Amino acid sequence: MNIKSAEFLMSNSKVHLCPEPNLPEFAFIGRSNVGKSSLINMLTERKSLAKTSSTPGKTQLINHFIINDEWYLVDLPGYGYAKMPEKPRKKLKAIIENYILGRENLTNIFVLIDSRHSPQQIDLEFMEWLGESQIPFSIIFTKTDKLSKGALLKNIETYRQEMLKVWEDMPPYFTSSSTKREGRDEILDYLDTILKQ
Ligand code: GDP
Predict the structure, then answer these.
(1) C or N terminus of the chain, fewer CB within 10 Å?
(2) Residue 154 neighbours by CB under 8 Å, 6+ apart
(3) Residues in contact with ligand 1 (CB, 6 Å cut-off)
(4) In what residue span(s) does the EngB-type G domain sit (predicted)?
(5) How far is the CA of 171 from the centre of ligand 1 (A)?
(6) Ligand 1 centre from 114 Cα, in Å?
(7) Which residue ranges make up each domain of the chain?
(8) What value, to the nearest 5°, has the Cα angle with vertex 27 and ends 80 and 50?
(9) What predicted TM-score, i.e. pTM, was given to this entire model?
(10) What is the pLDDT along the chain (197 residues), one digit of tens a residue?
């Protein structure tokens, strides 16, 4: 897929305020600092497209972008802030869940996982919830430049074993490095395939 245009549309916290659900939508989510903004910028080849989401006040909002006038890209708030007090944490969880359950044109969620880390409960639980809610999702293992090929394969295998405790198989998954611009073609080809279905 060629990215011919990528524009920021809006940020909000309520599903009914999102753009009209008239195009397929792909959302990106992960723990804070997983590399989501960098990945979105790499995919769209726009240096700071996803910057809006890291400006103060916007990190906890649903950010919509329109790509090629063909599909919406959504930058969802990061979850798993270790130090966030209970009240805002619950509010954030509600924003994310209401969006995911209520957004009728949501086609696929990409769950970003830092490829260096062992499986984290918060990510596993989130994906389990997606499964129970019958939301299609895929995994992107990020920051692969930070470890050797061997270590990456080992970590992915550990992830697979962890997921097999709950799932029949791993969902589709990708690896990416925004620094080395790796994984872009595979992810965009996958989007293309889904869009053409
Ligand atoms: P977000 O909070 O999930 O949006 O994460 P960011 O995209 O802001 O990235 C968090 C930090 O990780 C920043 O310091 C990035 O420079 C760094 N980072 C993001 N992606 C990569 C990557 O693929 N490789 C490396 N080495 N660093 C990355």
Answers:
(1) C
(2) none
(3) 30, 32-38, 54, 78, 142-143, 145-146, 177-179
(4) 22-197
(5) 23
(6) 10
(7) 6-196
(8) 80
(9) 0.95
(10) 999 999 999 999 999 999 999 999 999 999 988 999 999 999 999 888 886 445 555 568 899 999 999 999 999 998 877 777 888 888 889 999 999 999 999 999 999 999 999 999 999 999 999 999 999 999 999 999 999 999 999 999 999 999 999 999 999 999 999 999 999 999 999 999 999 98
- What is the Å distance from ligand 1's center to 197 Cα? 32
Is 11 within 8 Å of 53 (Cβ atoms)? yes
List beta partners, residue 110: 28, 138
Residue count of the chain: 197
- Distance, CA of 69 to CA of 7 (rounded, Å): 9
Nearest atom in ligand 1 to 142's CA:
23
- Fold adopted by 6-196: Rossmann fold (3.40.50)
Atom of ligand 1 nearest to the CA of 146: 26
Contacts (Cβ under 8 Å, ≥6 apart) of 39? 28, 112, 140, 142, 176, 178
